[in-house]
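This part of the workshop introduces the protein records we will be handling. A record pairs a protein's sequence with a compact description of its fold. Comparing a sequence with its tokens is the quickest way to learn the format. To make this concrete, we reproduce a full record directly below:
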Amino acid sequence: MNVESDNTDVSAIVDAMARVLGLELDAESRTAVILHLQIAFRMAPAFMSFRLPDDYEPATVYTP
């Protein structure tokens, strides 16, 4: 899946994953999930383009 593509059928992804997970989404919840997934797809290229050195490791404890 290319997250940079505007042709991603987000509603089909949401419907398929709801079936796989056995979730029953009412119309309002389905619309909200679709909206949030569309936002995530728009944000993803910025995160994916930020390269980290190979020796960076995730923090073992989150400290705000």
Observations:
- The CA atoms of residues 56 and 62 lie 15 Å apart.
- Residues 1-64 form one domain.
- The chain has a mean pLDDT of 87.
